[in-house]
Each structure stands twice: as C-alpha cells, then as structure tokens.
Amino acid sequence: MIDFEPSEEQALIVETVHAFAENEIRPLCRVADEAGAPPKNVVEAAHELGLVANSLPEAHGGGGERSAMTGVLIAEELAWGDLAIALAILSPGLLGFPVADFGSESLQKEILPGLVGDAFVPGSLAIVEPRFDFDVFHPQTTAKRDGDEYLLDGVKCQVPWLEGGRHVAVIAREEAGLAAFVLARDHAGLQAEPELKMGICGLPTSEVTFSSVRVPAEARLSASDDEIRQMINRGRIALAAAGVGTARASFEVARDYAKERETFGQPIATRQAIAFKLADMAIEIDGARLLVWEAAAALDRGEDVSRLARLAYDQTMRIALTVTDGAVQVYGGHGYIREYLPELHLRNIAGFASFETLALV
Fold it and tell me: Which ranges in the chain are annotated with CATH 1.20.140.10?
C-alpha cells in the first residue's frame, strides 16, 4: 500500500512554509503583480529559509537533502501565497539543480556557492520557444559542434530573468538529441528582451535570442538525452504542484466569500449551484494533488516518470483553470475587480499550458 502521509520533518516544513506564504507572500502578491517583480525582502527572507539551498550538494554549501516529494510540498504552499512570487523564490533551482546533477567540477565551483550564499541569487532556464508547434522534446534551438566550441542558434521565451541573475541554462538540439548548456547572461551574441504578460507579472521573464553564440565545450552539461527528458519531467511536476497551490488558494477565497456574501437573507454558500460548484472544486484539487504526489514519489524512487509527470501536469492545468474561473464566477461582478484575488489567480493560471518548466524539484 502506498502511503503519502508526510513525515514529521515534511509536516514541519509545510507548516513553516505555509506560515511564510500567509504572512509574507500573500499580503504582497498584488504589489508584485503591479511592480512586475517580486519584493526583494520576500525573496531574501525565503532564501534564508533554505527552500532551495537545502536541496543543493553539501560540498558546495547546500543541505544535501534533495527530495521531489518535499519539493512539491514546498511549491504548493508557496504558490498558495502567490504563483509568481513562488516561482521567483524557486528560481535558483532552475540553474542549481542541472549544474549540481550534470555540471563539471569547475562549473559547480563557479555557480553553486553563489546560489547558497548569504544573498538571494536567482537562476534561469531557457526551454520554451515562441512557436505554435513547439515541442519541448524537439526544440528548434540548435547546438552545432565547431572544434572546441558549440554554436547556439535559436529563440527562447518565458525565460525567468530576475534581477541579479548571472547565468542561464539552455536546452538545445544537437545531432545526437537534446543537450544542455550553461552560459553567462552577458555572453556575446545573447540578447534578452523583457516580455509583457497577461499573468505571473511578478516574475520577470524575457525572450532570449541566440545568434551564433559561441560557447566552450566545457559549458555543455554531461546530461544525456534521457536525463534531460527526466529534468523536464521534474519541471512539469514542480509546476503542477504550484498549480495545485494556486487552485487551492482560489477555492479557499471563493468558499470563504460564499459563506459571507448574503442574498435574500442567506449566504450564497447555501445555494445549491454554489455549494455544488465549491464541492466539485475541492474534489478536483485533491485528485490533482494525488497525481502530483504519485509522480514525485516515483521520481524519488528513480523511475522514469514521463507518463506520470505528463498526467499530473495536464490534469492540474485543466483543474486549476476550471477552479480559478469558478472562483471568479462565485464572486460575481467582484471577481472581475482587481481588489479581489480571483482575477489575479485566473490571469496567473491562464498561461499554464505553455509554461512547461518554470521550477524544478
């Protein structure tokens, strides 16, 4: 029998992260959305909690406690506070985990200490491409060997580009399959243009163009095609967990509003249509969470989670969009007003289908 009961340590982590999300993230979610960037004091405070650093190798200053299950628990609670700020807080893992798993010793020494240091340093991973027929496993960004170097050509979009980041990991296609590289953001030939988005505005992202960018062979991570696919699966699971957190937050505010809002002398929560809608939301969220946990547990066992990750991602994408839209409907006219959370949740989730990998576990 599979037991998904969190350990005592995981339960404590969930309690701590939820309190942080409630007291530090949720009150500033609108500020981040309007400013187009996460509050520095919040990401710094989250960094002090070691939410990513604790999963990086001890040899480079991290805690060495890598667990996909713990990672999805953290991602859900952070996203309950706000999806954009959650992804900003988790961004060091976008760079740190690939480098820790597949980077050369020199690359690890160059990058990892900065991600676990005293100050918050964001990470960046370029996967998604601005094409209607984009396939994450068959990117059009290419890497061609040229002596002791590679030539990178292509365009990536929705690349997290927070202030203070120094490097970006890039997924490209070479003759043998997928390949991953790490290069400095100011590398010659790399151009980044800020994106204006409908949602997750609190997470700055850029469209990044690679025009015959020459990178040394040492910048190529040792990951095989299968290992990169598994890394993408990790991203899907992490993003699904964040989607569950956002859906849960939207459901809870809608439920509480329905209990307080009265029509004809009774709370609207007593109306059958509203009550059934809220019940369906709760059932769907719990089902999505179980899929995420199942995928994370399989990942921790070292299994190929391609199918489970896809199921968790697709189901959460559908449920999160349904739930956030439902919350707007429960609020009625107020759901469309920026003073209330449902419109923010709906905008943040609206692009879920194209995000692919904005976090890793």
Answer: 225-355
